[in-house]
């Protein structure tokens, strides 16, 4: 019985212990349930925080997408603007090139036209003056030379007749003397009478010789006059040489002008290179903008990657929470099994002990699992920190990679820019080659002018040859004069000898008659000598005749040369007519080109107006973008305020939850104390330790969560504020860049227009100065050519007169008549050519007057008014007045004028 009572007591004790253990298990279940509730609450909080963070991330992503869209639009706009700028610069360059080409062509055309006009005017004036002066001088010279020719002819005929008569008389006298000397056998008285008669005849011959000497002196005077005329012709040749030198100087001046034109073209090339550099700078600026945009987009991608990393971390946390929930479920199952075991322990105490040990082990397992969860949470925190570090490292590596990619892209862009520059240089090279071809054409023209100068020099050399021939003729004439003088001296010597011989004969006759035979021999010798001398004189006369024939042949050859020159001049006149026709064709082509240029100018005006409109639209779009940015900033501020309010609410809720958790902890403490009083000392101590550990863990978790939440909130606020500040700065910088670009574009356009207008004015002044210089040069050339032509006419008349004299001397009057007929024909042809040139000059003057009347800016007052209006327009005022003035001054047709006025909202002109 005692054993039964002991067993019953043991059973009671076991039941009480089981009840206590069941109470402990129930309390543990309650604690686990509370922990589950807290975990659920924390999960809900985490889910709410995750949702809020996801919403914020979504909002940020939406904003980022908006910013991306805005940036993409701006990038597209910048690309379009860049393309428009490139196109505009190309168009401006092409317009400048076309304007330069047109100016060069216009200058060339104007110079050619003025040269043609001046040449035609001067040629007309020269031809008219030459024709009049030539006709008058030819008439006067012909009359003078005809009179002189007749006088000289008469004198020469008289001289020749006298010489023939004297020769006949001398021959007859010699024959008479022979007969007398043969009849000397008569009386001495008869001889004395005959000697007296001979002396008288000798005296008469001496008087005749004196008369001949006077005539020879007169002929010498005439030859001296001719020599003076030849000297005058040589002086005229010297003047012609001086004119040639002046023409060479003019050619040098023209070459200098060409060098100036080349210098201007080099300056234009330098301007083109400067524009290339400006384009390169603009392209580099655009590439910098693109790189900045790419960097911002890459930053946005990095932010997106960060958000995706945060989402992945949230998913990992969810997975860990799910694993913890599964562990808790397993623990609940084990607890249920323990309850079943406790119920079965009423049958067997040993089983109860085992179950008690199992419960203790389970409590230990629960503590270990709780510690394991703590360690896992700490590991998760460390993992997060490590992930943040690795993320930062990856961000640094990504930034390095992006920098490397940026450098590679910059190099690629530089290569592309260099390729574009090479292409542009090729295009400009073709343009420069065209300009070089034009310069080569100008050089060809200069070479043609040089060839003309060479031809003039050849003419000069021919004239010098003619001069030398004339000098040779003068020398021949002087030699003839010397020969005549020698003959006269010989005749005088012969006369003196005859006188001495006669005196000697008289003395011998007086002194000695014996020596009569000797005297007869001497007379015979004298007669033989006289015969020889007569023969010599006849031979000399023959030689002179031959010389005269040679001179006539030379003059015939010269006449042929003159005819050839006249034919060449006719060919030149024909070539000039052909050139005039070609020039007329070129003038028509230039007029067509002017029309095309006018149409191009109208197109350029329309394009400039469209560009101004596009700039105004860009300004308006920039202002709209500013307004939209301001609105976005206001929205962001509102959203920031909302987030602040929500964060405040969340903070208050979290504080309330913390207080509730603290209250629950206090209640749990009280329950634990109550349980500890009723429980066993060992189990109570262990439970106190476990509860303290759980409480400390829970408090640590709560603190860590609070700190994490606060740090997250602060971080999000800081990120939001930094992103907002960055976006504001970027928008402000973009707005400033857009405004500066618009203003710089307007300034550049205005400055370019101003510079172009000033250059046009300078070019106009330079052209006017060049025209004045060319007019003066050509007037001087005309005067020089008039003087040269007058000298050539004088020379030709002198040649004609000399030829006429020689022909008349030789008795070839028929050839003289033919030459006169040829001269009349040539004068008629000259008159016809002069009439043609006058008609051409009148036509050119009429065309000039038409062009001057058709010119829109002939009136200087209009030019002044246009300058004033252009100045005001460039200063930024009076655009409508500018349109009106251009319509009036440029004299557009009615359709175009109405379009322009409608475009500027002006009333149509009446």
TrEMBL record:
Bias (Basic and acidic residues) ranges: 245-272
Region annotated Disordered, chain positions: 106-137, 218-272, 458-478, 570-589
Alphabetic keyword roster: Coiled coil
Signal peptide: none
Limits of the GRIP domain: 856-903
InterPro entries for this protein: GRIP_dom (IPR000237)
Annotated transmembrane regions: none
Keyword Metal-binding found: no
Bias type Polar residues, positions: 225-238
Top-level taxon of origin: Eukaryota
Residue runs in coiled coils: 25-70, 703-788
Protein name (record): GRIP domain-containing protein
Species of the source: Ciona intestinalis (Transparent sea squirt)
Lineage summary: Eukaryota, Metazoa, Chordata, Tunicata, Ascidiacea
């Amino acid at each position: 019985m005692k054993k039964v009572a002991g067993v019953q007591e043991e059973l009671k004790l076991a039941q009480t212990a089981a009840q206590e253990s069941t109470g402990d298990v129930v309390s543990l279940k309650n604690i686990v349930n509370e922990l589950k509730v807290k975990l659920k609450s924390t999960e809900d909080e985490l889910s709410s925080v995750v949702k809020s963070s996801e919403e914020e991330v979504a909002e940020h992503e939406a904003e980022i997408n908006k910013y991306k869209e805005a940036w993409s639009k701006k990038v597209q706009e910048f690309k379009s603007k860049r393309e428009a700028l490139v196109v505009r610069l190309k168009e401006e360059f092409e317009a400048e090139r076309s304007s330069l080409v047109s100016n060069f062509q216009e200058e060339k055309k104007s110079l050619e036209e003025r040269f043609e006009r001046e040449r035609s005017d001067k040629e007309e004036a020269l031809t008219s003056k030459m024709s009049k002066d030539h006709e008058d001088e030819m008439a006067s010279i012909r009359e003078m030379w005809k009179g002189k020719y007749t006088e000289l002819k008469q004198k020469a005929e008289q001289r020749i007749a006298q010489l023939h008569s004297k020769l006949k008389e001398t021959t007859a006298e010699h024959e008479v003397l022979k007969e007398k000397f043969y009849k000397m056998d008569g009386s001495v008285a008869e001889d004395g009478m005959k000697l007296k008669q001979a002396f008288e005849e000798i005296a008469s011959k001496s008087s005749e010789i004196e008369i001949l000497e006077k005539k020879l002196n007169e002929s010498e005077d005439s030859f001296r006059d001719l020599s003076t005329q030849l000297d005058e012709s040589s002086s005229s040749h010297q003047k012609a040489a001086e004119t040639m030198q002046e023409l060479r100087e003019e050619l040098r001046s023209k070459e200098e002008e060409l060098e100036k034109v080349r210098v201007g073209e080099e300056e234009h090339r330098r301007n083109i290179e400067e524009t290339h550099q400006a384009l390169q700078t603009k392209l580099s600026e655009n590439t910098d903008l693109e790189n900045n945009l790419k960097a911002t987009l890459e930053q946005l991608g990095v932010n997106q990657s960060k958000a995706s990393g945060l989402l992945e971390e949230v998913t990992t946390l969810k997975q860990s929470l799910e694993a913890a929930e599964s562990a808790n479920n397993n623990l609940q199952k084990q607890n249920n099994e323990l309850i079943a075991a406790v119920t079965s322990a009423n049958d067997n105490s040993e089983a109860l002990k085992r179950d008690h040990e199992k419960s203790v082990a389970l409590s230990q397992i629960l503590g270990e699992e709780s510690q394991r969860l703590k360690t896992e949470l700490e590991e998760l925190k460390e993992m997060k920190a490590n992930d943040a570090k690795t993320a930062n490292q990856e961000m640094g590596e990504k930034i390095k990679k992006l920098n490397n990619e940026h450098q590679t892209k910059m190099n690629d862009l530089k290569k592309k820019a260099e390729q574009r520059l090479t292409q542009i240089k090729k295009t400009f090279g073709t343009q420069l080659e065209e300009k070089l071809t034009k310069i080569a054409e100008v050089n060809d023209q200069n070479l043609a002018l040089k060839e003309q100068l060479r031809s003039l020099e050849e003419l000069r050399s021919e004239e010098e040859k003619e001069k030398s021939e004339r000098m040779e003729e003068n020398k021949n004439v002087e030699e003839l004069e010397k020969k005549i003088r020698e003959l006269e001296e010989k005749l005088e010597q012969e006369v003196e000898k005859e006188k001495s011989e006669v005196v000697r004969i008289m003395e011998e006759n007086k002194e000695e008659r014996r020596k009569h035979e000797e005297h007869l021999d001497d007379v015979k010798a004298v007669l033989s000598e006289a015969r020889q001398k007569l023969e010599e004189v006849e031979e000399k006369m023959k030689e002179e005749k031959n010389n005269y024939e040679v001179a006539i042949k030379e003059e015939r050859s010269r006449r042929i040369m003159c005819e050839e020159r006249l034919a060449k001049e006719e060919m030149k006149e024909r070539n000039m007519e052909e050139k005039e026709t070609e020039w007329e064709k070129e003038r028509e082509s230039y007029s067509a080109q002017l029309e095309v240029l006018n149409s191009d100018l109208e197109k350029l005006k329309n394009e400039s107006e469209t560009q101004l409109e596009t700039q105004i639209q860009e300004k308006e779009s920039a202002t709209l973008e500013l307004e939209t940015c301001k609105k976005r900033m206001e929205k962001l501020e509102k959203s920031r305020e909302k987030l602040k309010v929500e964060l405040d609410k969340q903070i208050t809720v979290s504080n309330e939850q913390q207080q509730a958790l603290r209250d629950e902890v206090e209640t749990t403490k009280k329950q634990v104390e109550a349980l500890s009083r009723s429980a066993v000392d060992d189990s109570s101590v262990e439970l106190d330790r476990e509860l303290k550990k759980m409480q400390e863990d829970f408090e640590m978790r709560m603190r860590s969560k609070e700190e994490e939440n606060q740090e997250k909130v602060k971080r999000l606020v800081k990120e939001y504020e930094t992103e907002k500040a960055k976006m504001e700065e970027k928008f402000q910088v973009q707005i400033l860049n857009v405004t500066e670009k618009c203003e710089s574009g307007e300034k550049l356009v205005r400055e370019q227009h101003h510079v172009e207008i000033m250059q046009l004015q300078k070019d106009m002044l330079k052209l006017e100065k060049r025209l004045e210089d060319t007019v003066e040069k050509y007037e001087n050339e005309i005067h020089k050519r008039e003087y040269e032509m007058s000298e050539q006419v004088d020379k030709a008349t002198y040649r004609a007169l000399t030829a006429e004299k020689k022909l008349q001397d030789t008795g070839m009057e028929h050839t003289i008549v033919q030459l006169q007929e040829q001269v009349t024909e040539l004068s008629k042809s000259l008159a016809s050519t002069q009439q043609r040139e006058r008609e051409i000059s009148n036509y050119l003057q009429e065309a000039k007057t038409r062009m001057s009347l058709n010119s829109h800016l002939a009136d200087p007052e209009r030019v002044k008014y246009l300058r004033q209006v252009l100045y005001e327009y460039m200063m930024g005022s009076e655009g409508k007045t500018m349109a009106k003035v251009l319509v009036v001054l440029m004299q557009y047709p009615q359709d175009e004028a109405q379009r322009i006025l409608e475009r500027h909202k002006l009333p149509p002109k009446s």
